[in-house]
């Protein structure tokens, strides 16, 4: 008799748990992790491309030392931040990560603007290849970020709505995930000036 | 009260945020910009269906008159997500997108094909196969050369 009672209790609790989002929330969290994996991979790919790019540009545009140094420094800074899965729970490290990557984006886009002044460089096969790869990577980063943000939104909503919120606070203790915010660098896009004046 | 009016407003005029609708998928060649001759179109259809039967890779062409202010990459990924080109689970599809008036070309590649048709290869195909022909105003030749190159990359034969 007691056996049946335990069995029944087990059955009820399983049903109750599926009804209150126990599984959904965990599935959503896994989706966030998967999307974050893509974000990480595409940012890493960009970091890997930069040394080659800098070397190639250096060969043609020695006078642009400042811009090149800025890229190298921004890369070093972005590379020094340890990327991990826990980062997305933590607004502070996530903010730092986003800022460093944003600065790198800014430095890179400034570099791509000055490249326009060097026709020889622009005709260099190696440079063209790197440019193709870099453009592709930037695009991947964007796509990965958008998909990540979508999955974060689904997850964050799922842990806030009732009765999931109750299950979460009692059993799962899953934390809210950080979405990407609009890029700082995007607001300060490099200015293209048609006059000779340097700004 | 005001809230009700606002709600009513949204019911009557649903958000039309997406400026440019995703065109319908008509076949392997979707020439909305009307730049291709019927002969080229037939030839492309044949080449691409032969590719699918031999390699299971699906490649489609889309030409549009204009992006109407949308960002090329964002539009092409939307098209890719809507059309679902490539075999399910393999994601081995690609879309050659041409926006005529913006003079923009993009090859959107599915995950399963990225290994062969890399960003690098796509960039080279655009720069060396398609753009030179387009400069001469030869859309038929450019798209044909682009597709030929994509097909040979997929089969592992392209050298640039």
Overall pLDDT confidence of chain A: 84
Biggest chain-to-chain interface with counts: A-B, 11 and 10 residues
The CATH homologous superfamily of chain A is called LemA-like domain
Alpha plus pi helix count of chain B? 5
Straight-line distance between termini of chain B: 66 Å
Structural class of chain A: mainly alpha
What is the SS-derived class of chain B? alpha/beta
Number of domains of chain A: 1
Portion in beta strands of chain B: 5-15%
CATH C-level label of chain A: Mainly Alpha
C-alpha geometry of chain A = elongated
> Using only CA atoms, what is the Rg of chain B?
18 Å
Enumerate how many helices of chain A there are, as a single number. Answer: 8
Oligomer state equals heterodimer
Please bin the fraction of helical residues of chain A: over 70%
The outline of chain B comes out as globular
**Helix-strand sequence of chain A:** HHHHHHHH
Q: Kindly, what is the distance between the CA atoms of the first and last residues of chain A, rounded to a whole number of angstroms? A: 86 Å
Question: What's the helical proportion of residues of chain B?
Answer: 40-55%
Brief write-up:
With 199 residues, chain A is mostly helical. Chain A has helices at residues 2-19, 22-60, 65-80, 91-115, 119-123, 125-160, 164-172, 184-187. Chain A has a single domain (18-178), classed as LemA-like domain (de novo design (two linked rop proteins)).
Structure explained in plain terms:
The complex is a heterodimer of chains A (199) and B (160). Chain A has 199 residues and is an all-alpha fold. Chain A has eight helices and no strands. Chain A has helices spanning 2-19, 22-60, 65-80, 91-115, 119-123, 125-160, 164-172, 184-187. The mean pLDDT of chain A is 84. Chain B is of the alpha/beta class and 160 residues long. Chain B has five helices and four strands, in the order αβαβαββαα. Chain B has helices at residues 2-12, 38-55, 72-83, 119-135, 139-154; strands at 29-31, 58-64, 93-99, 104-109. Chain B has a four-stranded mixed beta sheet with strand order 1-2-3-4, with helices on both faces. In chain B, α2 runs parallel beside α5 and α4 runs antiparallel to α5 (139-154). Classes of the chains: A mainly alpha (199), B alpha/beta (160). The A-B interface holds A 128-129, 131-133, 135-137, 139, 142-143 and B 73-74, 77, 118-120, 122-124, 127.
